[in-house]
Amino acid sequence: FTAQGTLGALESLLAEKKPWTIEASVEMDDAHGKFQGALRKPLARPGLEASFTAHGRELATLGALTGIELPARGPVQIAGQLTLAGPNVKLSGLDVTVARSRVRGAIAWQKSDAPRVRIQLAPSRVYFEDLRGDSTPAAAPRADRSGVDDARVIPDIPLVGEGLRQASIEVTLDHLELADAKTVLASLTGQLRVVDGRLTVGPFRSDVAGAPIEARLVFDASRDPATLDAEID
Description:
By secondary structure, the chain is mainly β. The protein has four helices and 14 strands. It is about 10% helix and about 55% strand. It is globular. Mean pLDDT is about 85; it is low at about 135-140.
């Protein structure tokens, strides 16, 4: 493990307007990364603008550095720009590649008790085998804790909860393709918004195995019990 970097002159750190430059790099047997940016107004209202790149042999290697368990898929490449301004955090120009999967876009969120998140995905493609992280064939079922065969990639996700009622989330998809092996199973385009416990999806368009689908739905978790209104063509 090797890490090295440089910082700007001390007079830049003490200056009111002059940015303080930061450059760093990390080298490991299975991964390496670079970080290059500038800390603006460090003694007044600090803000950070930087670009970063990371490469790894396996996704699990990068996950171990952050304490997150990730599948052993690879190679992995990550690039983007990071902007910090007060409670606002933005990752722009994101380009993440894991094996054959590639996701591009931007993420912005505001740190507070009521989180506000905005996600924009550019045209991207995700292969389900890259999410499984094992060598099990796509058609082979596996048993879950109850003993029932379950080969799903996306698990059950509870929609009703205090977090959904407090969060403000907006997701925009621009031609997100979901594929398995050599087949594109679905392409998704549309918007998803969560405001005050109301999940609104649509207009949402998809093409599943050659069949076009348009959907609009409103899931209202501000009520108890929650209600769902959906229109699918």
